[in-house]
Amino acid sequence: MQEVSEIFKRLSRDKSKREIAYFTMEIALENDIPSYSGGLGVLAGDTLRSAADLGIPIVGVTLLQQYGYFHQGLDPSGHQIETDVRWHPELKLQQLPNYVEINIEDRKVRVHIWEYDVVGKFGYVVPVYFLDVNIPENSQKDRELNKHLYGGDQYTRLCQEIILGIGGIRVLRDLGYRDIKHYHLNEGHASLLALELIRESGYSSYDKIKQGCIFTTHTPVAAGHDVFDFNLVRQVLKPVYIDYLLEILEGEHPVNLTTISLKLSNFVNGVSMKHAEVSRDMFNYYKVEAITNGVHSATWTAPSFQRLYNQYIPGWDNDPMHFARAVFIPDEDLWKAHMVAKGKLLRFVEDETGIRMKLDRLTIAFARRAAAYKRADLLFSDLERLTKIASDKVQFVFAGKAHPKDKEGKQVILNVFDGLNKLKGKVDIAYLENYDMNLGAMITAGVDVWLNNPQRPREASGTSGMKAAHNGVLNFSVLDGWWIEGCLEAVTGWAIGPEPNKVNLADYDERQDIEDLYQKLETVLIPLYYKDRSGWIRMMKNAIAINATYFNTHRMIMEYALKAYHVAPLFQ
Ligand SMILES: *Cc1c(COP(=O)(O)O)cnc(C)c1O
After folding, report:
1. Do 2-265 and 338-543 agree at the fold level?
2. pLDDT digits (tens, 9 = 90+) for 327-376
3. Which of 272, 369, 373 to mutate to test the pocket of ligand 1 (most atoms within 8 A of CB)?
4. Which atom of ligand 1 is nearest to the CA of 467?
5. Each residue of 241-292: pLDDT tens digit?
6. Which residues lie with the beta carbon below 6 Å from any ligand 1 atom?
7. Which residues pair with 103 in a beta bridge?
8. What separation in Å is there between the alpha carbon of 307 and the centre of ligand 1?
């Protein structure tokens, strides 16, 4: 592959060949670059990792936060202790000599640029540009605009979005990207880039701008979208942009970034079939396509499974179709790889919490952002019943951070700790601190079952269950997001609760989910795990063969390439 690699490297340096710019507020590139808070950032990272592997001509644009997202500690009753992450961009990124200026209120703010290179399997490079305002030339107030990811008030958030959107376009121009044909907005945060494109084009026509913008929405509830008071926007943005805004919004107040994204994008998509349907309903906009999310297979497959796949299905890491042949992997080898991943997690659990879990016990994880709608505490609805079902049979691993301002999310963690403490001595339950990429990879590979029970239809897609499937870990989940497309009952995993209902959120009975969760755990999962191990292993192989084949970012970015970017990958 030496020659291919050289060609790719050369192509990587030719800026005129880059056709797509991917704008994202957060991105998970490495565990120790704290520029992500959850699924949105992990998706952005996985998207660019797949783009680099396949040779999709894309570049990334994001913000450099001084402290990024916080580090989570937990006290014995589950109170979250938040500390700033001190990281050193100069150890992870390369600072470029270039800089641009933008206006915030009547101030000029200088934006410096740092580069991170995502290097694909064959040497093709996808650069990611981090925009930095924490520099001596800026006032103290401006230096602190990007202190924390999703931190600060409305004013700060608007400024961050100006830096990302307007600053981002100027940065691309300054770096010499003149042939970008598509601007991909990963969520509405980046929508102000459209205003800069309009200004740049000499205010020609919105239609031309619209041809170039692609908007991926991720939030199935109206309250989750960025909305700013018009007066605030007028205070911060230069008048020229306000004129465009007035025209775009056609008198709509306040300023909703999702509205701007919808109006100025030619291609709009949700991140699963169900989410696209919910979005069509919410936006009253029929043209919302569905491109279901994925994960980057090589990143989220545990080392023991990588070795297994290299042996039995070589080529899996750049062509996920190979996963279809996972059904032929011998049972013993698959189970051995699973035991290695499980042993690693259980050792970590013991080191961190002192809880000595058993390798041969059915182990279930619930790890994700502690947002209220994800209902981490649902399992503890009936402690007596849970004790009866789980004691001596099931052990549980939890993890997840609540956003510092999310009181409800913090309450959910407290509820989990309450249940965990009450069940001490009866059921082993560990809550691991500081859920991040590394922990995510270890947990999604190291348990037997991946539990997910969000309120329908609030899980736009969910991706952690896809990581689980890559490692033969079985999903046990409410039918929402990707799982509606991935669940074949008792073949790839199990559903919790009723079939997906209509989009109405209020139309919902939580008791059905609780009943089904307990019932299936007791009468289906536990008996299968202990009495029919080969049946269990068959399901593990099905999950890999049916789910990992499809729910990966190689497939996903090829869909974007075909339907939205209109480019062909260099490789494949
Ligand atoms: C994969 C991942 C997520 C996304 O998981 P969901 O299924 O959307 O909850 C969030 N955080 C981390 C650290 C992850 O690795």
Report:
1. yes
2. 999 999 999 999 999 999 999 999 999 999 999 999 999 999 999 999 99
3. 369
4. 1
5. 999 999 999 888 899 999 999 999 999 999 999 999 999 999 998 899 999 9
6. 38-39, 42, 368-369, 435-437, 440, 462-465, 467
7. 108
8. 24
Instruction: Give the Cα separation of 33 and 86 in Å (integer).
Output: 10
Q: What global pTM score does this model have?
A: 0.97
Tokens standing for residue 521:
């755990």
Residue 222 has pLDDT above 90, yes or no: no
d(CA 65, CA 534): 49
Please determine, for residue 5, whether its predicted confidence score (pLDDT) is greater than 80: no
CA 42 – ligand 1 centroid, Å: 7
Distance 138 CA to ligand 1 centre (A): 35
Q: Which of 26, 373, 464 to mutate to test the pocket of ligand 1 (most atoms within 8 A of CB)?
A: 464
- Can you give the pLDDT at residue 429? 98
Radius of gyration of the chain (CA): 24
End-to-end CA distance of the chain: 13
Residue found under tokens 């692609």:
214
Domain residue spans in the chain? 2-265, 338-543
Pocket test for ligand 1, best of 455, 463, 470 (most atoms within 8 A of CB): 463
**In the CATH hierarchy, which fold is given to the domain comprising 2-265?**
Rossmann fold (3.40.50)
* Span 366-382, pLDDT tens digits: 999 999 999 999 999 99
- What number does the ligand 1 atom closest to the CA of 436 have? 13
**Distance of alpha carbon 459 from alpha carbon 257, whole angstroms:** 21
Output the CA 173–ligand 1 centroid distance in Å.
Answer: 33
Tell how far the Cα of 251 is from the centroid of ligand 1, in angstroms.
38
Residue with tokens 């994800």: 374
CB atoms within 10 A of CB 227: 15
The mean-pLDDT minimum among 134-148, 150-164, 274-288, 489-503 falls in: 489-503
CATH match of 338-543 with 3.40.50.2000:
yes
